[in-house]
Amino acid sequence: MKSFFTFILLAVITFPTVTNAQMSERYLMSAAKLQVHSGPGRNYNIIAEVPQGTQVYVISSEYGDWSTVQHKNINGFVLTKLLTEDSRIAEAERAAKEAEAKKRAAQAAVAKAIADAEAAKKAAEEAARRAIADAERLKRAAEANAALAIADAEAAKRNKMTAAERARAEAEETRRAVEKANQRALNSDVASTPIESTTPSYGSNRNRATSAPIAVSKENKFVGWKKKTYKSGATPKSFEKFKPSFNYKLDNYLKINVGKNTDVVIKLYKMGKTEKDDKCIRVTYIKNSSTQYIRNIPEGEYYVKIAYGKEWMETVKGGKPYGQFTQNALYEKGEDILNFNPIKTDKGINVPSYTLSLDLLSNGTLGYGDGKGDDNITPDSFNDF
């Protein structure tokens, strides 16, 4: 199956629309402090605490003993019995909201212009990155072809030298045998004809023997490496010093479906202002024919680096832990940007989530046709942070 990205934007938390009737009343907390939960119950996470006497807006009271409230930029659930009515500033608040709506409209127009400019900038930077990657790939291919040609020339030279040495040795052996036979004949009482060599001396034999094929054994570059087996969701020990990042206030996720032909290790990078500022926030091993979720991802824009293959092994390079697949290994940097920034709408807050499907074809490739799309980064680049 060809590797591809499927993106699903999900509204994980959507609060009901706040009507004018509902916003006409304002409430004060009567308890010592007001605990704001992520859902209508004490079993949900506490996402904020509001001091006593702080004014909060009630969005809806249709959740039994619980009401949804808004305080600053936080929406959540509180016990209704802890709220006391206070409508003294409702009219002023409505006027303030109208002014705020106009302000937001102006800010949205500015933000859109900035976003369009930023998108154009990122597109140009990504095009430059791809051009550099293509040039590096062509350079590696040229270097590999040159090394192969040199190796073939050296092997041919060694074969020629071996054949020449063998022919000289055989000629010398024959010459000595002839001399010994002639000497025996001269010293014998029985007349005999001296024995002559039936093989021309070296350099004149048209049917000179050729050397036997040289047996070349392939060097195992993974000698001394340790084979490791991980369950889906684990972080390989070669990345154990890496510190992941979480935002438990965001109930979002990246869902990864892995096919039957490969295991994968996926690294999720948060994009900075420049490529040097990009930061890896998660590293996860996922076995073939399984599904894994990466949850509670901090807001921002992301891309992934993916290692495909079988037989994960680890070692130490340059004093640092290092890991890679040793069978059918391919390494890829995803081209798509995953935007995990929450989106505010007139109906509430939409929290984006995505689904990513990964697999190799049965021939061990990603199925990009000419293969130029395969392996667009090196194992060293995958291991870097």
Describe the structure.
The protein is an alpha+beta fold and 385 residues long. Helix content is 28%, strand content 30%. Among the domains are: 25-86, SH3 type barrels, CATH 2.30.30.40; 225-383, Sandwich (Immunoglobulin-like), CATH 2.60.40. The strands form five sheets. Strands 9, 11, 12, 14, 15 and 16 form a six-stranded antiparallel β-sheet that branches. The protein has a five-stranded antiparallel β-sheet with strand order 7-6-5-2-8, with no helix packed on it. The chain has a four-stranded mixed β-sheet with strand order 1-19-10-13, with no helix packed on it. The model is unreliable at 1-24 and 189-212 (pLDDT under 50).
Rg over C-alpha atoms, rounded to the nearest angstrom: 37 Å
Q: Into which percent range does the helicity of residues fall?
A: 25-40%
Roughly how many Å apart are the termini? 29 Å
Order of secondary-structure elements? EHEEEEEEEHEEEEEEEEEEEH
- Which blocks of ≥5 consecutive residues have pLDDT under 50? 1-24, 189-212
Number of helices: 3
> What is the strand tally?
19
CATH homologous superfamily descriptor of the domain at 225-383: Immunoglobulins
Global geometry: elongated
The fold-level CATH name of the domain at 225-383 is Immunoglobulin-like
What characterizes the major β-sheet?
A: 6 strands, antiparallel
State the CATH class of the domain at 225-383. Answer: Mainly Beta
Report the sheet-strand fraction.
Answer: 25-35%
What structural class results from the helix and strand content? alpha+beta
The average pLDDT score comes to 81
Architecture (CATH level 2) name of the domain at 225-383: Sandwich
Biased composition (Polar residues): 184-208
Protein name: SH3 domain-containing protein
Keywords: Signal
Signal peptide: 1-21
